[in-house]
Amino acid sequence: MQFREHSLLFLLFLTQVSCKEELLPEREKKDLLEIRLSERLKTIFEDEIRKFEYDDSISMPDSGAILFTGSSSIKLWDDLEKDMMPLTVINRGFGGSILEQLPWYAHRIIFPYRPKAIVIYAGENDIANDKVPARQPYISFIKLHLILRDSLPDTHIFFISLKPSPKRQQWTAKFTTANELIKKYIGKHEKMTYIDVSEAMRNATGEIRNELFLPDSLHLNSKGYALWTGIIKSELIARYPRQAGKQ
Q1: What CA–CA distance (Å, rounded) separates 45 from 41?
Q2: 157: part of which helix (H) or strand (E)?
Q3: In this structure, which topology does domain 8-239 adopt according to CATH?
C-alpha cells in the first residue's frame, strides 16, 4: 500500500506512537500533518525507481538482507556490496533525493525486500539551501520511522549522520542541528542506531578533510567511502556477528 499524507492510518500512528512512555510532542504531531511532498518531487526520480522494479522482476534479492537507501552518497557507492562483505546488502539509493521521498517510495524500494536492517543516508539535500529549516529532515525521519515500524516492526534502522562537505560549509550549522534532533529521537527508541560519520570527516583542528571528496567537493571519493566503510561496517558487524562469521 502506498503511503498517503493525512491518511487515517497515519493519524492513528500519531495517536499510538510513544518515545519510552512519552507521547510524541504536540509540535511534532503538528509538523507531521503539515509536511507535504510536491507533485514534482513525487515523480522526479520515477525512472530510477522503475529501474529498481525492473531489476527485481529479473532477479529479486533475497529477503533478510541489509538495505542501504537514501540520496546520492548511497547511490554512488559503487563498491557497496564488496565493501560490506561478508554482509549481504542491497543498494537502493536514488537521486539527489530528499529524506521526505523515502516514505513516499517505501512501498516500492524498501518493503518488498523485507530487510533485517535499513541503513539510511538522506536529509542533506533537504536543507542545503536558505529556505528549508534544519528541523525538516527530523520531521521527515519521524514519518519514515512510523511507517517502517508499522510494516517492518522487527527491522533495525541505522541512520548515517549528515556529512560535512567543502561545497556546503555555509549550511554546517543546519546539518548539525538536524543531526542532533535525529540523534535524540533515535535515542528514545528501540531498534534504531545513529551512526556518526561527521566527526571522522574532520581533522584535528576541526577542518573538513578535503582529501575525502571528488573534485566537486560534495560527493565522496574512494578514500571517503573507505572511511565510511570502516565506521558503518563496524556497527553492522557488532549487531550481526553471525552473518560476519564472528561468534
Answers
A1: 8
A2: strand 156-160
A3: Rossmann fold (3.40.50)
